[in-house]
Automatic annotation (TrEMBL):
Family label: Belongs to the uracil-DNA glycosylase (UDG) superfamily. Type 4 (UDGa) family.
Protein name, UniProt field: Type-4 uracil-DNA glycosylase
Pfam families: UDG (PF03167)
Species: Kribbella soli
Domain Uracil-DNA glycosylase-like: 41-198
GO biological process, one term: DNA repair
Length: 209
């Protein structure tokens, strides 16, 4: 059983994305709010055909209050261009809305959210999916995969393929862009990441979804 109460009581079930953003920072569904600067809401068109789900806000996102504005976000921007995707056309969010970190001196070093923190925050992601109603979800990294595809899903084995979320919503899984930023084989891994995004584009273009 989760050691956190979960976000359900804080998630508004009426109203749209503006209401979600207004209420998100009040959430006490897990303990991450205690140390983070703020909760970071998703951003993008309310009726985007494609939704990208990452892991958590990073240091830059926590300070600035916007999704994917740090090194991983800059890499994602380049990959979107390569794949022929306009960032302004997609909805970007994270599976967990608060930054989890540990201090090393004055630096805040990212830590992966626990399974119970992912579960606690899940109602926010569900609500975003309900409001945006994307035709396809791009699942980036293991945390997003656990949140949306279950703990047994392996991104390394299933990346770049058409899969389905519970309920039948089509999705494509890939690595988190931060993994590409850190890669020792950057050119190869950036190319693979772009290829995965192109699969998502093809699924929309071919109306498979």
């Amino acid at each position: 059983m989760s050691k956190h109460p979960g976000a359900e009581k804080w998630v508004p079930h009426k109203g749209g994305i503006r209401k979600v953003r207004a209420e998100l920072d009040k959430c006490r569904g897990c303990d991450l709010w205690k140390d983070a600067e703020r909760a970071v809401a998703g951003e993008g068109p309310v009726r985007a055909r494609m939704m990208f789900v990452g892991e958590t806000p990073g240091d830059h996102e926590d300070k600035e209050g916007h999704v994917f504005v740090g090194p991983a976000g800059h890499l994602l921007d380049k990959a979107l261009v390569e794949a022929g995707i306009e960032r302004s056309d997609v909805y970007l969010t994270n599976a967990v809305k608060h930054f989890r970190f540990e201090l090393q001196g004055k630096r805040r070093i990212h830590k992966t959210p626990t399974a119970s923190q992912i579960t606690a925050c899940h109602p926010w992601l569900v609500r975003e999916l309900e409001i945006v109603k994307p035709s396809l979800v791009v699942v980036m990294g293991a945390v997003a995969a656990k949140a949306l595809l279950g703990s047994s899903f392996r991104v390394t084995q299933e990346r770049g393929k058409r899969v389905e979320l519970p309920g039948g919503l089509p999705a494509v899984a890939t690595v988190h862009p931060s993994a590409v930023v850190r890669s020792e084989e950057f050119r190869r891994d950036f190319g693979r990441f772009v290829d995965d995004l192109r699969v998502a584009v093809e699924l929309l273009d071919q109306a498979i979804v």
